[in-house]
């Protein structure tokens, strides 16, 4: 039978949706349930990873150490691990996490900053960890250039490289273009991380698996940053229907998800901000800057996002943003029709 590995990210990416307020009890209950169901990879911790909890990035309810100790007590068969952004996490954070039983780590950098991951990958490998290199905002680099970076990450010692649709706007053929370009230069295992801004997280994840991508990120109820991720429940069921080797009782899965995670789900309907981010490949980490500049100039935030994303899909240049906003029509009413309150953290991935 065909094989696929699911990385459940509920307890990490899902934390964005609840302002990083998962408790140690949640880690034990949800992580333990996923473990008993038969999932092999469970990611935990603050949405931005090790060392991220702070007033600037959002204060998590418990510490990295407390979350890891909770996972250590409750997850007995699956590998559990964390996310790590160079410059946010320290080398010491990795050492401490490794001592608490984690088996994998995901090193996340913007797709044009892969060099920053080198020392982190090498240190993680020295502790015997399985290392994934996550290329945030993957779509900002052409497939051929992306593939060159993959070969570099492999030379650093990464075991897996992830194509990351941070804005949730990639289409299936684009995923295939990246896959084909990578396979011309590297045989490294690949992963895919979807967001649902255009409603494609599940279908893109299914497609990614069908073309040979070995690891797929999912979360229970699709809980995650912005419009959320591919649903663990639905992806599991679809993979089983396609004949993949997943010995998971989907009925128990549905009941666990309904009891433990569905109460955290607050967002419904189609949100204009989530959607425009998907359409334009604009990352939600800069929405607080968009909101501020739109308020100053009285312009439509959706138009400002659309215009800015034409020149930059990775970072934020406030001077260029100000120049663009001055050229837009005044539209104060648009600000009252949009809700930015969920986007004032320093979101990543």
In short:
With 349 residues, this protein is an alpha/beta fold.
Summed up, the helix count is 14
Strand order of the largest sheet: 1-2-3-4-5-6-7-8
Q: Tell me how many strands there are.
A: 8
SS-based structural class? alpha/beta
Strand content: 5-15%
Order of helices and strands: EHEHEHEHEHEHEHEHHHHHHH
Q: Low-confidence runs (pLDDT<50, min 5 residues)? A: none
Distance between the termini: 32 Å
Helix content: 40-55%
What do we call the CATH homologous superfamily of the largest domain?
Aldolase class I
Q: What's the pLDDT, averaged over the residues?
A: 95
What is the correct CATH architecture of the largest domain? Alpha-Beta Barrel
Largest sheet: 8 strands, parallel, barrel
Organism: Anaerosporobacter mobilis DSM 15930
Protein name: 4-hydroxy 2-oxovalerate aldolase
InterPro entries: 2-IPM_HCS-like, Aldolase_TIM, DRE_TIM_HOA, PYR_CT
Domain Pyruvate carboxyltransferase: 4-254
